[in-house]
Design brief:
Elements: E1 3-4, E2 10-15, E3 27-40, E4 46-55
Antiparallel strand pairs: 1-2, 2-3, 3-4
Length: 62
């Protein structure tokens, strides 16, 4: 399930599947962030890529 947040990120749930490190989690709610990163390379060319990050910090306002 995906729930959009006002800042453009969204909340979703991930499942541990078969592998459970330590105590493990059955399901964990996480926030997905998106950012367009642009880098200028040594030869002067620019390259842009969309990156996604995942965090357990769920409050979009904090």
């Amino acid at each position: 399930m995906r729930r959009p947040l006002p800042d453009g990120s969204h909340l979703t749930t991930i499942c541990a599947g078969k592998y459970k490190a330590g105590r493990g989690y059955g399901q964990l709610e996480v926030r997905i962030l998106k950012a367009l990163m642009t880098a200028t390379l040594a030869d002067g060319t620019c390259r842009s890529e969309l990156w996604r990050g995942m965090t357990s910090l769920l409050d979009a306002e904090r």
